Amino acid sequence: MVSRTTTFAFDGIEARPVDVEVQLLGGHPQFIIVGLPDKTVAESRERVRAAFSAIGLALPPKRIIVNLAPADLPKEGSHYDLAIALALLVDIGAIPADALEGMAAIGELSLDSHLQPTFGALPAAIAAEALDLTLVCPESSGSEAAWAGGSVLAIQSLMAFINHTAGRAVISPPEAGAMKAAPPLPDLKDVKGQDGAKRALEIAAAGGHNLVFCGPPGSGKSMMATRMAGILPDLSPEELLEVSQIQSIAGMLERGELSRRRPYRAPHHSASMAALVGGGVKARPGEVSLAHHGVLFLDELPEFNSQVLEALRQPLESGEAVISRANRHVRYPARFQMIAAMNPCRCGGGPAEGNCRKKPKCLQDYQGRLSGPFLDRVDLFCDVPPVTVADLSLPTPAEGSKEVAARVARARQIQARRFADLDHDGRPLNVDLETRHLEDVCKTEPDGQKLLLQAAEQFSLSARAYHRVLKLARTIADLDEADIVLRRHLAEALTYRWRDPSFAPQMMAQS
Fold first, then answer.
1. Does the global pTM surpass 0.85?
2. What fold, for 188-396?
3. Which residues are within 8 A (CB) of 364 and not within 5 positions of it... i.e. 6 or more apart?
4. In the CATH scheme, what is the code of domain 2-166?
5. pLDDT band at residue 504, thresholds of 50, 70 and 90?
């Protein structure tokens, strides 16, 4: 007799069904798991054996074969324990043969037969609902799985499942976790002066553009970056589901609580490539995926390993992180907005402030750590001057995050209405505007087009840079609620594109 049930293998945030087949054969007593299991899965036999012993059941002295199909799909993690144990319960007659019909199971067993919290409960529940299956999972993961809206059976132990199938103690469906109460965010009112940097932050938030602040230490670069989350709108229901699935895979959903606030991740500059992009032994999501639909803040940008920064080029362009393995590719969503901060040079102040001891070589060497192709993917460069005593003595600004967030929301609503009429896949943000739609969406006045062509020729803009300037100008026009892109919108976009000190005054004079 072969007993069967279903569990899931995680390929990125996708839960792929795995058939668990258990058969008892004659011969020397053995417990064998086949189907490309990793070491954690192979150790399931000891956890299952101990859990059975804890509830007074003994495995028969036979050859036990567990097959995880499809056999060519790598199986990783401890969540296969429960499915194997349930199929064995059928084989030894502890539960009826039809008890597992229409069910799938994930969960790690402890030695006393209780179930430990498991990662990936939400993606597994979504996959189970699509297959019209009831998901059996640990009680501690039930509130997370319930967000999928399907049938969920959250059990505390193996004995609880046995009693449920026998009708002695029926388990009620779990309730979805609460929406997490978000703590107050820092307000832009705390930042005195730096009107230019605030403007750049607002434009970046409105269109989802990547932004780099460059200025001496203490000028408020990190302070403004941390206030980005306060001017961004909440996650939409579709975005919330995607973000929560990534957090579920990463084991970050405590008590099944979700948050509508956009992710904000700020890894240290010593972060490895696996930590930032994803990878490791089990191909876990990295910071770029944990920042999906949110903000990735990179402080001290040139201090990051150059290979790590180069690895960001593909996620910045495609919106996904691809982790390559010998026998497969794991893909995680990574549609994030990058905000970075850097000093002009290693000395901190830069030649303009007169604090650099090795000018101009110090600045050239320090900023030379950032490659041209990487910088080509950044839409806004904003020089942040030092904060003066006069700035600090100013009264608290009348305009804060609330007012800026309202303008950002209006600009994003304009983009959403525009994208609704386009054949477009992805976010309804100007930064994701496809090239084939640029001509229709970014209509410019003749003088503006002339200025853009002049700048493209004079400063040798790449095709990517040319398109990004147009998208940025479209965002600036949306903040002004203008139907077409005007010359002044393009002029402002060009000043953000180039950080050459001689370039910004020239473009503004021409506007």
1. yes
2. Rossmann fold (3.40.50)
3. none
4. 3.30.230.10
5. very low
